[in-house]
């Protein structure tokens, strides 16, 4: 029994190690899977298999237009396709002519992609060899709707530039629609695309993963680095927590925790016992109260008088300034006055001459 238990634990750990390390699952270079033809399964399938999926109302018109093409492409693989507009569903069923048992799974993915707004031209590629699809649900990753819309837009990028870059690097067709992202392409590309999309929805910008993929693509071209680790070439991005919680305007100082309850406050009788008022007679208590009221009245009268006298206090006058103003010099510059007079005469003479010339011309014209 113990040996069986040990073997079971070893097999579980072996499986876990293989699933944790994705490089073990990679297809070796130069490997080509032989095509599955009718000769491999001449008798066909024993039982009938079928899959159905629902589609939204806005896809009805498009599916009606392209359904004859879908039926034709699936008929080549021996699969019958049905469109039910009343229920809003698509169904694929295997026929006697179907020889490939995996073709029904491909047909199921085809109708799922058509329901998720993938165009027919792209969706039919799923029927090819070494092409798979992945529908990634992104609606449940973030709870806040505004945050979800912002991150989804970040994945698309300005004019779809980020999405185009991911498509070029992964070799997949990617379509963002509502709460899901549909990806169609090779298995290795789908793995990278899923990682980028999920990281983007977890607030990791796609540019970091795009940079890493670009470096990996260049390193894969070098045959000497195939057996080496690429960690020294890949960028390491440190996480920065920029967003901080808003601090309150008034911070309350936390008191030191004590397991004992706070002391009980003194009652009115305890206070009277402490001051000795409890043992006084009623007449003495009234006398003390009247004296306290008199003191309060005197204080309030003094404050009121002070407030009235504030209006009669003269304001403080500014002290006379001790800075002496520099007096203008009594000396007169005669040369400067002469220059001004001469300049004024010249300008006057020039104006008279300019005025006189048009008058002479007028006189000559009148004489003629």
Automatic annotation (TrEMBL):
SMART domains: KH. This is KRR1 small subunit processome component. InterPro entries: KH_dom, KH_dom_type_1_sf, KRR1-like_KH1, KRR1-like_KH1_euk, KRR1-like_KH2, KRR1-like_KH2_euk, rRNA_assembly_KRR1. Residues 132-202 form the K Homology domain. It comes from the Eukaryota. Belongs to the KRR1 family. Required for 40S ribosome biogenesis. Involved in nucleolar processing of pre-18S ribosomal RNA and ribosome assembly. Binds to RNA. Required for female germline development, cell viability during eye development and for survival of dividing cells and epithelial cells during early wing disk development. Residues 243-255 have a biased composition (Basic residues). Residues 243-269, 291-326, 340-368 are annotated as: Disordered. It comes from Priapulus caudatus. Its main location: nucleus. Coiled coil: none annotated.
């Amino acid at each position: 029994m113990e040996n069986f238990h040990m073997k079971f634990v070893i097999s579980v750990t072996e499986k876990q190690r293989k699933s944790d390390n994705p490089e073990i699952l990679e297809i070796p270079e130069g490997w080509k899977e032989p095509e599955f033809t009718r000769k491999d399964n001449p008798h066909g399938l024993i039982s009938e298999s079928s899959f159905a999926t629902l589609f939204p109302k806005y896809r009805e018109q498009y599916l009606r237009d392209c359904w004859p093409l879908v039926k034709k492409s699936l008929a080549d693989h021996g699969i019958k396709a049905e469109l039910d507009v009343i229920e809003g569903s698509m169904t694929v069923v295997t026929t006697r002519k179907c020889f490939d048992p995996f073709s029904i799974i491909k047909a199921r993915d085809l109708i799922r992609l058509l329901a998720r707004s993938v165009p027919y031209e792209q969706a039919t590629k799923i029927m090819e060899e070494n092409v798979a699809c992945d529908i990634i649900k992104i609606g449940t990753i973030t709870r806040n709707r505004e945050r979800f819309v912002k991150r989804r837009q970040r994945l698309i990028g300005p004019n779809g530039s980020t999405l185009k870059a991911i498509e070029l690097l992964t070799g997949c067709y990617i379509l963002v629609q509502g709460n899901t992202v549909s990806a169609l392409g090779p298995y290795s590309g789908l793995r990278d695309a899923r990682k980028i999309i999920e990281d983007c929805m977890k607030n990791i910008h796609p540019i970091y993963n795009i940079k890493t993929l670009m470096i990996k693509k260049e390193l894969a071209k070098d045959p000497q680095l195939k057996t080496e680790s690429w960690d020294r070439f890949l960028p390491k991005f440190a996480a920065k927590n920029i967003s901080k919680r808003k601090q309150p305007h008034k911070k309350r100082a936390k008191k030191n925790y004590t397991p004992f309850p706070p002391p009980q406050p003194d009652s009115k009788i305890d206070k009277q016992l402490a001051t000795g008022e409890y043992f006084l007679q009623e007449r003495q208590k009234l006398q003390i109260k009247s004296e306290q009221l008199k003191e309060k009245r005197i204080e309030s009268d003094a404050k009121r008088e002070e407030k009235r006298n504030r209006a009669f206090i003269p304001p403080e006058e500014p002290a006379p300034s001790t800075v002496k103003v520099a007096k203008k010099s009594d000396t007169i510059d005669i040369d400067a006055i002469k220059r001004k007079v001469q300049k004024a005469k010249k300008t006057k003479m020039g104006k008279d001459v300019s005025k006189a010339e048009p008058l002479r011309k007028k006189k000559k014209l009148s004489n003629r």
